[in-house]
Amino acid sequence: MIEGISIYEILSxxxxxxxxxxxxxxxxxxxxxxxxxxxxxxNAAAIxxxxxxxxxxxxxxxxxxxxxxxxxxxxxxxxxxxxxxxxLYKLVSSVEVKDTEIMKY
Amino acid sequence: MEKIIFYIIAVLMIVFAIAAVSSxxxxxxxxxxxxxxxxxxxxxxxxxxxxxGAIQIVVYGGxxxxxxIFSVLLIHHIELELEVTPLKKKISAGILSAVGLGITLWAIxxxxxxxxxxYQSIEVAEIGRKLLSYEDGGYILPFEVISILxxxxxxxxxxxxxxxxxxxxxxxDGLENRE
Lengths: 105, 179
Hints:
The structure holds two protein chains of two kinds.
Chain A (H helix, E strand, L loop, with lengths): L6 H21 L3 H26 L5 H31 L13
Helix pairs in contact in A: 1-2, 2-3
Chain B lengths: L1 H21 L3 H21 L3 H26 L11 H24 L13 H8 L8 H23 L17
Helix pairs in contact in B: 1-2, 2-3
C-alpha cells in the first residue's frame, strides 16, 4: 500500500480513467482510437484488481495474478484487432466506423 | 513524499488520458496513451508490485504502443487530422460518462472498506509458485488456457493480416493476379 493514500483515492482515480475510456469509446470515429479507449478501460480494471488485493486482502494473491492475465488478454486482443483493422483497410480503404458496413462479403 | 508523487502521477494520468481521447492528431494521441500507461506502471511501482510495473512497461511501452504506431503509419500519414465528432454526440457521451462516473464515485465513497493495515509487498517468487501449483488455489489451468490463447492469437493474427491470398485460388478483383 502507498503511505498516506487511502483506497478511496486510488479507486476514484481508476474510475475516472475508466470513464474517460468510455467517453473516448463513444465519441471516436476511427477504429484505432476506439481500440485505444478499450486499452484505457482494461488498464483501469487491472489497477482495481491490484489495489483491492493489496489494501483489503494482502495475504492472498488473486488480484495480483489476475492482473497479469488481464495484461496478457489486452495484448492479445490488440494484436488481433489490429490485424483485422489492417485487413479491413485493404478491403474498404478506410478505418472509419461509418464505412465498415460489411463483414466478409 | 509518496503522497506527493501519487498526486503528481494521478494528475498527469488524467490530463494525458483526456488528451488521448480528444486529440485530433492520431500519432499524438498514441503518444499520450503511452504516457498514461507509463503512469499506471508508476502506480504499480508505488504499491511495491514492481514485477507488474515492469511487465506493464515491457508489454505496453514496448509492444502495444509500437503496434499502434505501426498500424497508424501503415494506414494514415503522420499528420492526418481526424474527423471532428459532432458536438451533439460529444455532449451526449460526456453526459453519459459523467453520470456513470458520478454513480460509481458515490458507490465507492459511501462504502466503508475494511482496510487491512499490515504492510506486505507482493513477492514474485510467490506468484510463480501460485501460477504453477496444482493444489487448491493454484492457477495452472488459467495459465495453460492463456498460453493456448496466445498461440491461437498469434496464428490468427498472421492469417488475418495476410488477407485473401491464403484461401484464394483464382484472383477475383485483379489485385491478386500478379503471380
